Amino acid sequence: MRIVEKLEDAAAWCGRYRASGLSVGFVPTLGALHRGHASLLERARAECDRAVASIFVNPTQFGPGEDFTAYPRPREKDLALCRAAGVDLVYLARAEEIYPPGFQTWVTVEEVSKPLCGVSRPIHFRGVATVVTQLFAVVRPHRAYFGAKDYQQTLVVRRLVADLHLDTEVRVEPTVREADGLAMSSRNAYLDAEARSAAPRIRAALLAARTRVLEGETRTAAVLDRLREVLRPDALLELEYAEVRDATTLQEFPDGVVRSTPGGVVIAVAARAKGTRLIDNVVIPPDGPASP
Fold it and tell me: Where are the domains of the chain?
């Protein structure tokens, strides 16, 4: 496994892969890797000739007062996970190259960035879209892999790839979960025993809301009432948002009535478990089984 820090070295290595006719699969990460990341890396390894990972705690997707400084950076553990997953190249991007002096170009995906997480984190998706565009320019992957837990992020990335005519296929893989249903997240490491015991209620609440929709409930208010009933926000678990939206556009349903759409329905939640922000979702497609 090759490890590079310079942008020009990463670009050169990936360029040689492509010039040799090899397909490149790419997983961009913030680091603090876990089994969810491993599943993406293994998928890239299985579907492409070469698997590339980037590790970069991107400062522009953290807002004021968020955990940029505290975000875990276990470099050796992350590299060991990449090695075990069969990664060929790890790009340890450097902030001074991603955002050099005088940097002033930003990528903003307008409408799909605004609701849900965009309300409380108004600069977050601008930072995500900008760094993903830069990393795609360096790696030039044939396929890029993202987890379904970060549902709104996947829509942002799909939109920027389509709008900017980037030659990359975006692949979204199922959320990897703990045995009790909690979505795997690097921020789970922040949870103490009490918060960890409360956090799985997020998943239980989403499943209960999904069941109401599958049983024929079309009133978004009733679906969300059921979600809140199961979530039982208290001192351990504070709800930031719970929404039922069009799964493709993230638009609200007119008059609060769920209607059939080509992309289906997404039910999304953000909640804080003793201050640690966690997100999760379920997607109900127009036909066929709902997402696991």
Answer: 2-173, 186-284
β-strand pairing of 89-92 with 143-147 = unpaired
Question: Which is catalytic among the residues 37, 124, 142, 165?
Answer: 37
How many other C-beta atoms are found inside a 10 Å radius of the C-beta of residue 46?
Answer: 10
Q: Rounded to two decimals, what is the model's pTM? A: 0.96
- Please confirm, yes or no, whether 37 is among the known catalytic residues: yes
CA 13 from chain centre, in angstroms, equals 26
Instruction: In whole angstroms, give the CA distance from residue 172 to residue 158.
Output: 10
Rounded-to-integer distance, Cα 52 and Cα 62, Å: 24
Q: Any residues with CB less than 8 A from the CB of 284 and at least 6 apart, and which?
A: 210, 213, 214, 247, 264, 265, 266, 267, 290, 291
Tell me the pLDDT tens digit for each residue of 47-86: 999 999 999 999 999 999 999 999 999 999 999 999 999 9
Task: Determine whether 286 is exposed, middle or buried from the number of CB atoms within 10 Å of its CB (0-12, 13-18, 19+).
Answer: exposed
What CATH code would you report for 2-173?
3.40.50.620
